[in-house]
Amino acid sequence: MTTPAQASAELAELAALVRELGVVHGKVTLSSGLEADHYVDLRRVTLHHKAAPLVGRLVRVLTADWDYEAVGGLTLGADPIADAVLHAAAVEPDAAPVDAFVVRKSTKEHGMQRLIEGPDIAGRRVLVVEDTSTTGGSVLTAVRAVREAGAEIVGVATIVDRDTGAREAIEAEGVAYRALLGLPDLGL
To answer: Could you tell me the pTM of the whole model?
Structure first.
């Protein structure tokens, strides 16, 4: 298990990697429809060889007091986070296994026609993850799908919270919420 000192150093390292790899300056329209002077592209970070293991370990530290059997969220942003957490849990001594799942944006039209891919989550305790939270709309889409699938949500964890209403929206749905980093951690 990661010690508090290790977690603090790793969080500082992750923040530096997000600043270096993921922060893009310039006018952008976010998925929420809001405009910003910068974009935090977490896929550049969560799919990076050095950052992905940090993400997995730090999400495990952030959620250490939450008991969950599976982790996932809305594709595409949540996918590498869920995989990183799955792998981090797998190397923790005495940790229970954690499966990953993917919530599609719409039900697949062919094959099994599933909205949620991966091991069945019905009746299981799950962690829903997101890369960057703005209004909470994307992660709440996943939350609702996971609830409809019969899973119990222990909480939502995000890598970067833009502090623009996501926390409030998620908590209004009765779901606990935590973030690894905020915009001040990124110098924004």
So the answer is: 0.93
